[in-house]
Specification:
The structure is a homotrimer. Chain A is built from nine helices and no strands. By secondary structure, the first copy, chain A, is mainly α. Chain A has one domain. In chain A, helix 1 runs antiparallel to helix 5. Chain A is globular and about 50 Å long. Chain A starts with a helix and ends in a 10-residue tail after the last helix.
Chain lengths: 204, 204, 204
């Protein structure tokens, strides 16, 4: 599989799982079907839009092709009809959000490197595009974004993007670096939830 | 009347009514005069700014000309002095918001088509620029954006933008298509509120 | 000191104090160390990012150089370890926020003038970049942004940016105009808090 195709696939999966997470939040708040679609699309495409805006790559992918919109809408429809199925997952919003987080961190970092940013800027852009969708979802639902109060959330995105940039630096092949970094970021996020890892909190 | 002039006029009216809606929300929260102006300007110009950013048309109109700022500020001042007059309207924020919604959906779609986007991307951009101002207004007032919980809100914007793009496709003259699509979107929104039309909500 | 160097220094100070203010808010909410860093960085760099986006200067400074990220992160670390020291200040978030507000209003206005905007657009961009970081900070912490409910907040940013543009118009030397305008804006904001100056509120 070529690298370009791999990243198209990753982007699609990331958009879909973020769309699912947005739709799940909208279902809990009992919005109607179109409110659910709006939050699914907003959560699915916002991170990529912010990434493209910051890189000066306008109009962003989500407006140039119909796929991000279609994929995120499909996620919203899936949640509307098959919510009980998704709810059998353990903490579905957390899980879906973690997968999207890892994918967009690496994909955002890669696009920034292709656009000529240095590694630190590229890693920061990866983090921004990874957390962007979730921040918009939580703000629109008037909740404190989980990037602020969940332990090891932005840190997992940072670790994934930095691992990817580091692997490329040491000459690892692009697709291996990408898949490894995504698994690393998602695994770190899930492990931190599963095992209750905590970062230091401020002293009282 | 030329098409360009018609759209300048529509943009002005949309900015003004969104400005009024932002100022009304600020009045209810009892902000001071400058807080009212800030929310009027933010609500009036945010949608257009996001539209221009996503199209790569920088600096956006609202910074290149003084009109959007002046019109939205005027709306803030009007509300400060003539609030009782505006409050005689039935649900003024909803009504003003509906007019702005329809106008910006069509105007955003048109600008995107002029910039060479395909119809689906142009319709999506129309929806984003139509709901952008209201989302910022509601988020800044720490309310759940009405695009999420009001029935037939984003759907009305989508219907207006799609109707406009569809009319052009079938060769309808630009200004007729624009006016018709705006009336259709505003009418759909108002009718849904008046007659209590609902979209399906998720099953319990 | 050259003008360019002065503005680099001002930008650094503004990023640092905004970073401190974001970290202080995060500490109060008892986020963990990384949540504190995220809010410090978001508050410190958001205003400048929005400014660069609106000017079409992409990728923004905060991604092209590592300094804004490093400075805002340092602010987060400082707050984590030395919070008691900062808390001895009278209303530290208000004070730090005021300094950042004045600096970014003038720096944003200057960059906009360099990019060829007219004075009104440049002043508006100064206000947007001055209030942008604080709005994001308050929205992420699910508080009503202080730009809406604090008397003489956006007005202080507007006064600073307008004073700077006005001084240049009358031929005052750039660095003198800049320092004077920053002091004027910060002083106006602090004086309004200290002496309880109020803008008119809407009649009951």
């Amino acid at each position: 599989m070529t690298v370009a195709l791999l990243f198209i696939l990753l982007d699609a999966v990331g958009t879909f799982v973020f769309g699912l997470s947005g739709a799940m939040v909208a279902m809990r708040r009992r919005f109607d079907i179109f409110g659910i679609l709006v939050l699914a699309v907003a959560t699915g495409v916002a991170g990529g839009m912010v990434r493209d805006l910051l890189l000066g790559s306008t109009p962003p992918d989500a407006l140039r092709t119909v796929w991000p919109l279609a994929i995120a809408s499909l996620a919203g429809v899936c949640v509307f009809f098959f919510k009980p199925l998704i709810e059998r997952l353990n903490r579905p919003v957390m899980l879906l959000d973690a997968i999207g987080l890892g994918i967009f961190a690496v994909a955002g970092c890669r696009k920034a490197l292709l656009y000529g940013l240095d590694a630190p800027g590229a890693v920061l852009l990866g983090v921004i595009s990874a957390v962007g969708g979730g921040v918009l979802r939580d703000i629109m639902a008037t909740e404190v974004p989980r990037v602020l109060h969940e332990d090891i959330y932005a840190l997992a995105a940072l670790a994934g993007a930095a691992a990817y940039a580091g692997c490329l630096w040491f000459g690892v092949q692009d697709s291996i670096a990408a898949v490894g970094a995504v698994i690393f970021a998602v695994g770190l996020r899930l492990a931190s939830v599963r095992f209750g890892w905590h970062l230091p909190h401020p002293p009282k």
